[in-house]
Amino acid sequence: MKPTKGIKILLVDDEPHILQFLEMGLSNEGFEVQTAPDGAIAVEVAVDFKPHVVILDVMMPEMNGFEVVKQMKADGNNVGIIMLTAKDEVEDRVKGLTLGADDYMVKPFSFDELLARIQARLRNQFPDLLGEVTQGPFRIDDRRKEIIYNDKALELSPTEYELLKFMIMNYGIVLSKTLILDRVWGYDFGGEENIVEVYIRSLREKLGDKEHKLIRTLRGVGYRVDLP
């Protein structure tokens, strides 16, 4: 899926080579992109630029990512914030989500994964910008909360819808149970991880995926959607 013109992305990182790489890649995808080398400048830029999505590093001089999240979310602004965290820094991810960040990615990450997460934020927070999204045999209509598979509407519970949408939007990427619980059930979910297996089993039945070729299990790692 190619994003439509007019979707604004603000990149915030104190590493110039990361800013340059992401700015070039996202501009080539059709996004309108602006950059900021630190949190204080990012807050100023956001006032006039009014981004739809902010890609935000946690550790920066002047003002760290947590302070930026606080200020950008303070007035109830509808902006999607994806935080970039160091590997294994679970406390940073929890703190960012608690303050109002919408998603996180662990460095290093692939550009394709970043695109998938941006698209997920747009689908969740700005559905009118994108309309329907088609990925392989799936068509997602977030306004109707409906997923069409091979031209047939699936009968899904609200949680099944959110889980399948999340997996489709991140197809080709291995998704751990922990990540799925964070993104679908919420980071403060206090239940058992096995709930993911139960819902995956239900989705496979509704998709007719008896051989697990569509939703694959990677033992000890997680799940991955493979589209034809």
Automatic annotation (TrEMBL):
Residues 130-227 form the OmpR/PhoB-type domain. One of its GO terms (molecular function) is phosphorelay response regulator activity. The keyword Transport does not apply. GO terms for cellular component: cytosol; protein-DNA complex. It comes from the Bacteria. Residues 8-122 form the Response regulatory domain. The modification 4-aspartylphosphate is found at D57. Pfam families: Response_reg (PF00072), Trans_reg_C (PF00486). Keywords: DNA-binding, Phosphoprotein, Transcription, Transcription regulation, Two-component regulatory system. Residues 130-227 bind DNA. GO terms for biological process: regulation of DNA-templated transcription. This is Response regulator transcription factor. It comes from Paenibacillus zeisoli.
